[in-house]
Specification:
alpha/beta, 127 residues, 23% strand, Rossmann fold
């Protein structure tokens, strides 16, 4: 059995929220798990409902709402779709994990240096 995509619809403007809700309601494979009228309620609702996607209204005056950084730091699996209703623009935000590595000498000194963050990457390091 296929699992539904869990969606939380949030904040302003109300018309956008109502349009998104009417579009998503009844869609196969989409489960609207809640809606937030106030931005302050969003982090608590994300923690409570555990959505796959959060849909928010985007204020054109800032490229990425601070709420996105807060949520993606605390809920890295969350995906956020921000829509600017006045300009018909949407932005998809997500977090990714970067894995870094560097070669180190196989010695007690190198091991302790890495643990103490004093190791200097050697030539040929991979980021």
């Amino acid at each position: 059995m296929e699992t539904s995509v869990r969606v939380l619809v949030a904040n302003r403007p109300r018309l956008l929220r109502e349009l998104v809700l009417s579009t998503l309601t009844g869609q196969e494979g989409i489960d609207v798990v809640g809606e937030a009228e106030n931005e302050q309620d969003v982090p608590l609702l994300v923690a409570k409902t555990k959505p796959d996607f959060l849909l928010i209204g985007l204020d054109e005056s800032r490229p990425r709402p601070p709420l996105c950084d807060l949520l993606l730091r605390d809920f890295p699996a969350l995906r956020i779709i921000a829509v600017a209703p006045n300009t018909n623009v949407g932005i998809f935000y997500w977090a990714s994990l970067e894995i870094h590595s560097t070669t180190m000498e196989a010695s007690e000194e190198a091991l302790l240096g890495v643990m103490r963050k004093s190791a200097v990457p050697q030539k040929g390091s991979v980021a």
